[in-house]
């Protein structure tokens, strides 16, 4: 009987030592300091846009875009071109073509707040100035989603408000 008790005690002790050896005590480590984005904003991208324009009449728009960003620390600078076809009641109403510069700041590793400005042309060749801004969020290693507002004017009384949701695919 003593051999059985000794054998059982030895097995329990061996199991406890094995469990302790397998799970060492880990003391809490300080949280890492994030100084810049984990998303690589310094790349070429293409994308899709959808939204609307209001110049006294409400239009629904769909388009495509392409751009290039350059990142310096938490600052992102870029150039973007976009073409958008607008519809009113299902009828094609015209198009706008944008050439905009962007300057933004990373408020979080995957969140960019930016201002934009540039020139907008319509399908008849008229030019407008545009200024606005937006938010862009990284939702995957190569994909961002965001929203943008732009105020456009020709300086002579014609104005418009453009708002877009944009989905961008970044390339390495």
**Strand line-up of the largest beta sheet:** 1-2-3-4-5-6-7-8
- The gross shape turns out to be elongated
CATH class annotation: Mainly Beta
Structural class by helix and strand composition: mainly beta
Terminal-residue CA separation: 72 Å
Helix content estimate:
10-25%
Q: Any idea how many domains?
A: 1
Q: Roughly how many Å is the radius of gyration? A: 28 Å
> What's the CATH architecture name?
Beta Barrel
| Beta-strand percentage range | over 45%
**Total number of helices:** 1
Uncertain parts: none
Query: How many β-strands, per DSSP?
Result: 8
* N to C succession of SSEs: HEEEEEEEE
Instruction: Indicate the mean pLDDT.
Output: 86
Protein name: Outer membrane protein beta-barrel domain-containing protein
Organism: Maritalea mediterranea
InterPro entries: OMP/PagP_B-barrel (IPR011250)
Keywords: Signal
Structural write-up:
The chain is mainly β and 172 residues long. The protein has one domain (44-171): Porin (Beta Barrel). Helix content is 12%, strand content 63%. The chain contains one helix and eight strands, in the order H-E-E-E-E-E-E-E-E. An eight-stranded antiparallel beta barrel has the order 1-2-3-4-5-6-7-8. Strand 6 (127-140) and strand 7 (143-153) form a beta hairpin. The longest helix has 21 residues, at 2-22. Residues 1-21 form the signal peptide. This is Outer membrane protein beta-barrel domain-containing protein.
